[in-house]
From TrEMBL:
It comes from the Bacteria. Residues 1-16 have a biased composition (Polar residues). It comes from Streptomyces tricolor. Pfam families: Glyco_trans_4_4, Glycos_transf_1. The lineage of its organism: Bacteria, Bacillati, Actinomycetota, Actinomycetes, Kitasatosporales. InterPro entries: Glyco_trans_1, Glyco_trans_4-like_N, Glycosyltransferase_grp1. Residues 198-356 form the Glycosyl transferase family domain. Residues 1-22 are annotated as: Disordered. Gene3D superfamilies: Glycogen Phosphorylase B (3.40.50.2000). Residues 27-171 form the Glycosyltransferase subfamily 4-like N-terminal domain. Keywords: Glycosyltransferase, Transferase. This is Glycosyltransferase family 4 protein.
Length: 386
């Protein structure tokens, strides 16, 4: 079999791949951009099928990939557009459940290999949960390889009927560590970020601890538990300020609770400067009911910010001993852990050091691309002469 991990040998056409992305959360969209950039650099032709908004936000064409607008919908028109885009592909790689299902429909009747990456677990209740299970079964039984970003996703794929399920190497893209705000280096504790006081002042956290949470304002994120815990922090002196960056359907409900209960919490909406927020934070908080490779967890450890996270999904494997883990849905445990850390600078210093060491064990972008290329190599045959 002809390797595809570098520019195509003389006389052979380059490998043609299609990357299929649905609505795309921040993690999967950034991953596809990073993957596209690495593949193009290695001589692979890449077409990214995604909504036009995703290309505007993540710049797939800016790294040398072709972009084809395919709406997130699974209606016949969208599936037909995807089928056309995949017509000459040697391999199709879909990211996320809905994108994967559309790829299955688009490839119906074709022998084009399908690789699927599960970045997260779909959440639903009632009849919709049953529908999602059916979609998962259809996808994993069609895919040649399913890559899961955490071991529990790999196990789920195997239980659902995957022929071949593997743990994916997924790096935190370098652009998420831009401007030198993350990976501050070993001298960070002795040389605080000069932007820290300015950011704290802008957030209203001067002279008080600043706790940062990041993520969409939906039920999965566990922000109701975070607000329950914040109620107990009102008795501290000074009172910590919790800042939540993100937007979502629960914003009116959360805002009403904050105002009615006079909680020390601010909702600041969607932000592009998460790295700067972390540079000013005393602690990072992750209260979700489930996560795979949480971007916030990775950014916090890279930035040497002590992390308190729920012991769910792929979080324990991701952070190792470099974070304080608490049960999901337990506001008392969350509150106690935060209070203890705020009063224990030595423990915080230990977590910072461990965080930097743990982050160094995570795969790089080059390693991520290399793994994907090895999978592509297994599934593609030598291509005909030009």
């Amino acid at each position: 079999m002809t390797p595809v991990s570098s520019n195509a040998p003389h006389g052979q056409s380059p490998l043609r791949t299609v990357q299929v992305l649905g609505g795309g959360n921040a993690g999967s969209s950034a991953h596809v951009r990073s993957l596209a950039e690495g593949l193009v650099a290695r001589g692979v032709r890449v077409t990214v099928c995604a909504p036009i908004e995703a290309d505007r936000a993540y710049g797939f064409t800016g790294v040398g990939a072709e972009h084809v607008h395919v709406p997130r919908s699974s209606d016949p028109v969208s599936v037909a557009a995807l089928r056309t885009a995949c017509a000459n592909a040697d391999l199709v790689h879909a990211h996320g459940l809905h994108a994967s299902f559309r790829a299955v429909l688009a490839l119906s009747g074709r022998t084009t290999p399908l690789v699927v990456t599960w970045h997260n677990r779909a959440h639903a209740e009632g009849p919709r949960a049953h529908l999602l299970r059916l979609l998962e079964r259809r996808v994993v039984k069609t895919a040649a390889v399913v890559l899961g970003t955490s071991s529990d996703l790999v196990d789920r794929a195997r239980r659902t009927g995957a022929r071949d399920a593997r743990l994916a190497a997924v790096a935190l893209p370098a652009r998420r560590r831009a401007a030198g705000l993350l990976d501050p280096g070993p001298d960070a504790l002795d040389d605080p970020d000069p932007r820290r006081p300015k950011i704290q002042a802008e957030l209203g956290a001067t002279g008080r601890p600043l706790l940062i949470a990041v993520g969409s304002l939906d039920r999965q994120r566990g922000y109701d538990v975070l607000l329950d815990a914040a109620r107990s922090w009102r008795d501290l002196d000074p009172v910590p300020l919790v800042v939540v960056a993100g937007e979502g359907p629960l914003r009116p409900v959360l805002q009403r609770r904050i105002e009615d209960e006079e909680l020390p919490v601010r909702l600041i909406g969607h932000r592009e400067d998460v790295s700067e927020l972390l540079a000013a934070a005393d602690l990072a908080l992750l209260t979700s009911s489930w996560e795979s490779r949480s971007v916030l967890a990775q950014e916090a450890l890279h930035a040497r910010v002590p992390l308190v996270a729920t012991r769910v999904g792929g979080i324990p494997d991701l952070v190792g001993d470099a974070a304080e883990l608490v049960p999901y849905g337990d506001p008392a445990a969350l509150a106690r852990t935060v209070v203890r850390l705020l009063a224990d600078p030595e423990r915080c210093a230990t977590l910072r050091e461990r965080g930097a060491r743990q982050a160094a064990t995570w795969p790089t972008e080059d390693e991520t691309v290399a793994q994907v290329l090895s999978v592509y190599d297994e599934l593609t045959q030598p291509r005909p002469l030009v």
